[in-house]
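Q: Structure tokens for this one, please.
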Amino acid sequence: MNLDLNCDLGEGEPSALTRALMRCVTSVNVACGGHAGDLETMARCVDLAKQFGVRLGAHPGPWSRGDFGRGALRLEAGEFELLLVHQVGALERLARTKRVRLHHIKLHGALYHASESDESLARAYLASVRSWWPRCVVFARAGGTVARLARRAGVRVWEEAYLDRGYRDDGTLVPRNAPGAIFDDERAVKHRLERLVVEGVIETVSNRHLRLTPRTLCLHSDTPKAAQFARLARRVLGL
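A: Here is the predicted structure, written as tokens:
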């Protein structure tokens, strides 16, 4: 199976970087007005995805731009569904006017982590996807709660691993403010890629091995050297 390469875009990065990353990836997760993004950036990303033949995905986040949707989160199931309808629905409607199909949904930041740690939120999330966007794939952490529950709920899921983030032994990501959280060296990314492709393992910050079977690999646009990492990943993966 060919691995997919995805990136979070439309989050305020320079337009030249948006285009450079869009040339390399095979899927894009577009911020849709929560933690970042507006109608203009969404439209630009949809146009570029169409131009470069990239799968279009929605990247809904908390309504908290001050901390980029990565701070503490309190959310009820009903609020979660409304947030998704607002954000994913807006991108889907815009994409439809440009004759681009919404392929997937990937939560951002605190939403992503909250749905992994709270099964009630994970179920609410998947119920909303099944109700409103039954044809969409969910991108979720490889080996995590959402991926497991999605299969039970009959929601299509692509398990995701990160190329530019450190992992803890339990399979969760190293917090961004901790040592080893973000990769800044091409050799580290290349090593991560090669071990995943050949051995199906990811090394944790304590040098233990996680066995994962991802379908898609993620790079963040706000990671230093993101464009270089994307070009490297494309070469290694043969995309």
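A few notes: The mean pLDDT is 94. The longest helix spans residues 77-97.
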